[in-house]
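Hi R.,

Here's the chain you asked about this morning:
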Amino acid sequence: MLISPPFGGGRAPVLARNTVASSQPLATQAGIEALQSGGNAVDAALATAITLTVVEPTMNGLGGDGFAILWDGKKLHGLNASGRAPAAWTPDYFAGKSAMDLIGWNTVTVPGMVAGWVELSRKFGKLPFAQLFKRAIDYAENGFPVSPVIARQWREAIPILKNQPGFAESFLVDGKSPQAGQIWKFPAQAKTLKEIAATAGVSFYKGPLAQSMVDFAQATGGCFTMQDFADNTPDWVEPLAFDYGNYTLHEIPPNGSGIAAQMALGILQAANVLQYPANSAQRIHLQIEAMRMAFADAYAYVSDARSMAVPASKLLDREYLASRAALIDHAKAASYGPGDPHSGGTVYLCAADASGMMISYIQSNFKGFGSGVVAPGGIAFQNRGMGFSLESGHPNQVAPGKRPFHTILPAFLTKDGKPTMAFGVMGGNMQPQGHVQFVMRFVDEYLNPQACSDAPRWRIDDLGKLTVEAAMPASVVEGLRNMGHEVTVMPANSLDFGSAQAIAKISDETNSAYIAGSDHRRDGLAAGY
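And the predicted structure, written out as tokens:
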């Protein structure tokens, strides 16, 4: 692994025996505090995640969802803490619509994240659950200075969400968002956090907090019932494993879309991508084409695991992926529909401790503040319901109690059955394509986590358009255009390419040691001791 930073991102990697990396410095410090108080990596991740709902509300909130992949010292575990559609969401409920709404009550599924916190703490944590809320409650009660990136995202959300129930009352002051450096306090959210902490989440799903959310929904256009909340449970799942080089990439299985990253890597292996130099237009061209193919399949077949018409094993079948790779013209861009396998705005964080425990964790309200709907007590709801399809017979068609297609993806690399790296890349559909780029930088180019994060990225955006970061070499952009790609070079301050955090293991000794990186594109911080 190369320790020096080849891309000039301005940050050095952090080397330590205990470390946390997140998208917000105050949250990272909350995680470090949990470790120093006798907690383990899971405690650190939870303290960080809980604090993020306060200090980075533009990306996540108490009404969001979460996923985790963790190494407990002996084996890997996956947790799906994404919520489900309310009982009222039958296809008839959406009659007359051609597509799901993008914001508002008709995008809000039952929040799964809080239940995920409880479950992770119960099964793997060492500290009392309530102790993990200390910093979050303090920042909500006494305030914190808003950072420039978060202030910008906050300001940009106002025209879109200001008329949604509870948004202006919760997140605006005199109709305005806080400016960079302004102290933001949210005492009502502190009260909610105290209630969650004191009841170990029971109030959120079966008690006063649940009743408050249901009452608010019934009064403002939602359809939640107490039963919808009571029925919510997170699920422990077996992470999907897919070999790439000498490593294995692990992703949460559907309803998550991490399988798209694994499919793209399989297509790239079959296409012999390493015949082309690193950072060349030819190699990036193949990455883009493979990702377009993987997305075509993911959007056609990935859904709640209970309704998958095509099993994940078929989508990851090597012969099938080779047949997809054979369709790629190595010198020309193309477009692709789904194949036929039958025949053949988010926060990410990670933590690791000296005992060898590592966790890759992600939580989100999806599009920025999510639905824009904010229940009393600062409970900002995600808009994950927009991920459902209204197409009759589609595997991802909306239905009561069903989980929608999900974009948030924690990732984990192992080698020879041992943990290697916990990592993630935030930002909607950027996540699986970010995983592909991150894995190839780490596995094929031997870069450390910070350098993997600093490297310029490309992205196929939500409209299918190819964009690249301003730091992408001009020779690469020209080469892609010569192969038929319509390339948009984004401004240097673009936030479209997500943000990444990663922790890699560098020692297999009894007391483990790690190297961590955080993203210069946001306010990320990796810290350790």
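The mean pLDDT is 95.

Let me know if you need anything else.
M.
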